[in-house]
Design a protein that fits this description.
It is built from 9 helices and 7 strands, in the order αββααβααβαβαβαβα. It is α/β, with parallel strands linked by helices and 220 residues long. The protein has one domain: Glycerol-3-phosphate (1)-acyltransferase, CATH 3.40.1130.10. A 7-stranded mixed β-sheet has the order 1-7-6-2-5-3-4, sandwiched between helices. α1 packs across α2. The longest helix is centred in the last third of the chain and has 30 residues. The radius of gyration is 17 Å and the shape is globular.
Length: 220
């Protein structure tokens, strides 16, 4: 990585942390660079991937690639530079998908035996912060790579910082909660797995709500 890219990377991490005001919590899990992981989270903002990526320790962050929509991140020089040169994102086409370039095929190829991924199984961003149903991509990725360790994540308040339809973020406090690892079980059906993965994120949301209640009580 060039000197300019190194500086730009540090600036992007600092700016992301400043805008999100993110408190990072590892709940029944811990950072680990000894295995390949898929970090999967709720999705409400274009900042989500950068917030998760910035929240990871440097050694892990350097081996973790966000999965993002090619049509959005290739639109304009700045986005293209950030996605390609800084985030090293795996860009997925949402149109003109064939058997040779399915999102799962691309993800498996791009992560090889080195990289972890950041995914948003809902596919599109939520308008109101509610957690939608998970699409099948996470399941089919794990079918091809059942060795992958899956880490659920709940992002709190990102929809207020940069909601869908807004181009400029509003600095606020948020929280990134990394949950306990899970794996695809042998012979587990798609619907059962996706429900279990979604429930893992929901449990972290309930944990966040309990933190907020305790904060309110302590202020009183």
């Amino acid at each position: 990585m060039s000197f300019f890219n190194v500086i730009a990377k540090k600036l992007l991490i600092g700016l992301t942390r400043l805008l999100s005001g993110a408190t990072v919590l590892w709940y029944e899990s811990q950072p680990d660079d000894s295995c390949q992981r898929v970090y999967f989270a709720n999705h409400t903002s274009h900042l989500d991937a950068m917030v998760i990526w910035s929240a990871l320790p440097k050694k892990i962050r350097n081996k973790t690639r966000p999965v993002a929509a090619a049509d959005y991140w290739n639109a304009g020089l700045i986005r293209r530079y950030i996605s390609n040169q800084i985030l090293n994102a795996v860009l997925i086409e949402r149109e003109n998908v064939s058997l040779k370039n399915t999102p799962v095929t691309i993800m498996v190829s791009e992560m090889n035996d080195t990289y972890s991924l950041i995914l948003f199984p809902e596919g599109s961003r939520s308008l109101d912060g509610t957690l939608g149903d998970f699409k099948g991509g996470l399941y089919y990725l794990c079918k091809k790579r059942p060795d992958l360790e899956l880490i659920p994540i709940y992002l709190n308040n990102m929809n207020a910082i940069l909601p869908k339809g807004r181009s400029l973020p509003v600095p606020m406090l948020s929280r990134v909660i990394f949950g306990p690892p899970m794996w695809l079980e042998m012979d587990e059906r798609k619907d059962s797995f996706l429900r279990r993965a979604r429930d893992a994120v929901v449990r972290l949301r309930h944990l966040e709500e309990s933190y907020e209640e305790n904060d309110i009580k302590s202020e009183e």
